[in-house]
């Protein structure tokens, strides 16, 4: 493996950027002092008991931590490079759509490890739509960077038992369309955004919640949905 893959290059770039930001913060006291104060306020926010003022402490603490980080030259260079890279990759995928073929593996009595490419894959940026598509079911485990994600499971033949959908995103909205005859459990975590479960909406701020539908014992098909975003809305609705 002499050549680094694209994901490895992104990982190394993020690592070097993080080290550069940390060094610049340590060497610049004008940025380091507000960062320390922000960390102290966040620590105090966790132990603070008054709910009315907790949000104020959180906003002030996060701001004092976030502003010094984005003020570093290394962070600005990294964001510009990441934006240029994302635009290049988006232009390539738009001009040359990638075709995905789902291959099945025949059963074998011998013990061996098989590898299969899932139909739904990670995406760093851009809007993803998987609507009215028939595909072989595999548990979904994807990460989305920036952009909206829409996944329609209405055309998918879910197997009996529990099927898992795991989606992690940074900034963007997530919409899941589930079959009407399947029971659903949703475990959602977000820093800021709305959660809409079957037209029941809730505003979240640094929260994680669990919802589950009625009739779990009456159906053989169950969907466990685990979603997490930093900023964005999540909607789950029936077909």
UniProtKB/TrEMBL annotation:
Entry keywords, A to Z: Membrane, Transmembrane, Transmembrane helix
Pfam families cross-referenced by the UniProt entry: DUF7649, LiaF-like_C
Domain of life of the native organism: Bacteria
Ranges where the DUF7649 domain occurs: 20-88
A Gene Ontology cellular-component term: membrane
Chain segments annotated as transmembrane: 12-45, 57-88
Span of domain Cell wall-active antibiotics response LiaF-like C-terminal: 126-236
Coiled coil ranges: none
Record's protein name: Uncharacterized protein
């Amino acid at each position: 493996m002499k050549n680094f893959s694209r994901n490895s290059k992104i990982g190394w770039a993020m690592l070097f950027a993080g080290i550069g930001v940390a060094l610049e913060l340590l060497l610049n006291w004008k940025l380091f002092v507000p960062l320390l104060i922000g960390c102290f306020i966040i620590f105090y926010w966790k132990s603070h008991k008054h709910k009315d003022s907790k949000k104020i402490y959180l906003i002030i603490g996060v701001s004092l931590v976030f502003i010094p980080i984005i003020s570093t030259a290394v962070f600005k260079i990294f964001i510009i490079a990441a934006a240029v890279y994302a635009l290049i990759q988006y232009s390539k995928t738009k001009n040359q759509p990638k075709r995905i073929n789902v291959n099945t593996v025949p059963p074998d009595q011998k013990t061996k490890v098989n590898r299969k490419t899932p139909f739904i894959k990670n995406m760093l940026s851009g809007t993803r739509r998987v609507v009215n598509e028939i595909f072989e079911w595999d548990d979904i485990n994807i990460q989305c960077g920036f952009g909206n994600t829409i996944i329609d499971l209405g055309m998918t033949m879910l197997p009996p038992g529990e099927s898992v959908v795991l989606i992690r995103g940074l900034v963007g909205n997530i919409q899941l369309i589930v079959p009407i005859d399947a029971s659903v459990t949703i475990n959602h975590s977000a820093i800021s955004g709305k959660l809409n479960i079957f037209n029941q909406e809730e505003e979240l701020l640094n929260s994680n919640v669990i919802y589950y539908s009625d009739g779990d014992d009456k159906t053989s098909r169950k969907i466990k949905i685990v979603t997490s975003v930093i900023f964005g809305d999540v909607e789950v609705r029936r077909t």
